[in-house]
Hints:
about 140 residues, alpha+beta, seven-stranded mixed beta sheet, 2 helices, globular
Amino acid sequence: MTERIVVVGAALLDGGRLLAARRSAPPELAGRWELPGGKVEPGETPEAALVRELREELGVEAEAVERVPGRWPLRPPYVLYVWTARLRAGSSAPKPLQDHDELRWLTPAEIWDVDWLEQDVPAVRETLARLDAEADAGADTI
């Protein structure tokens, strides 16, 4: 049996919004939206991979917050795990540096305005519940 290779996705949250990244490559994925991230390297924890991938792909300093329940199969041997993440204080704003040509911060009402990659849809649904809870908590502090 082939060993699974873990791919980490970042549900990057900020002010009740979720960051979506539009793929620019490969051609079969170009134009579709995803949670940014990438493969976990040998000897690397998924959380460390998430931080590294966000730095490489978006030029930001972020931290993993909590794992989103579930795992989603990609093309074999890859499997997707998702963590919520947040920007560290003082981080620059995200920029599409690698594999993406556009970024968009989406409110819960806008989440389905973009054409998500199929494998990201269940993770986005799970994240949306957290986003709604974060928005509700924020409303309580006003």
